[in-house]
Amino acid sequence: ALRARVAAAEGRGIAPAARRAGGRAVVGDLEVDPAMRALVATALGELGRSFVVDRAALERLAGERGTVVLGDAEGTGARPPGAAEAEAARRAAGRFGGGLVGEGIRADPTGAVRRLLARWAWAPSLAEAGGLAAILPPGWRVAARGEGAFHARQLQHRGSACRDRRPARSRRGV
């Protein structure tokens, strides 16, 4: 599904300019465990259509429509969680029957997807994802297998956002 979206966008928006600037599709050579593909797609969202470029290419991409991910990103947000934080998240996710989304990545030549998914966990259902999101450290997000994702203070459910953190099945009109 990710590769199909990228292929559809190849000739539009930022894609041609990003390629001319040396960019690569975020999911271009990505290899994902088949059982985790839907979770990775949920976690990446629209970033699955983006391109990895170096900071030096940004000026050449000004005015283009689309999203890029910096391949040479630095700073706190670009660093993965520490070993203790990642292990605590893994254990918490395991209590809900889930795990860490990034563990489904088999190959990521640019390293961008591993970085983007470094603070994503998963749970088997939306209800369990809500419970898991409540106990993870700030900045972590949770994908529910085939149902949506929790993060920060809102729930994303099948592309829409709502402030109600209750499972979508328990709300009217969703």
Give the overall average pLDDT. 79
Terminal CA distance reads 24 Å
Number of helices: 6
Output the radius of gyration.
17 Å
Q: State the secondary-structure class.
A: alpha+beta
Total number of beta strands = 11
Which regions have little confidence, pLDDT < 50, spanning 5+ residues? 152-174
Shape: elongated
Report the biggest beta sheet as strand number plus sense, adding barrel if it closes.
6 strands, mixed
Strand order, main sheet: write it out: 5-7-8-9-10-11
Helix content: 25-40%
Beta-sheet strand percentage?
15-25%
Spell the H/E element sequence.
HHEEHEEHEEHEHEEEE
Quick summary of this structure?
By secondary structure, this protein is an alpha+beta fold. It has helices at residues 2-9, 15-20, 37-44, 83-95, 112-116, 126-135, and strands at residues 24-25, 31-32, 51-53, 68-70, 99-100, 105-107, 120-123, 141-144, 148-151, 154-157, 160-162.
Keywords:
single chain
Describe this structure as you would to a colleague.
There is one protein chain. The chain has 174 residues and is an alpha+beta fold. Helices cover 29% and strands 20% of the residues. Helix 6 (126-135) links the parallel strand 7 (120-123) and strand 8 (141-144). The longest helix is centred in the middle third of the chain and has 13 residues, at 83-95. The two termini are 24 Å apart.
Helix and strand layout, with pairings?
Layout (H helix, E strand, L loop, with lengths): L1 H8 L5 H6 L3 E2 L5 E2 L4 H8 L6 E3 L14 E3 L12 H13 L3 E2 L4 E3 L4 H5 L3 E4 L2 H10 L5 E4 L3 E4 L2 E4 L2 E3 L12
Parallel strand pairs: 3-4, 7-8
Antiparallel strand pairs: 1-3, 2-6, 5-7, 8-9, 9-10, 10-11
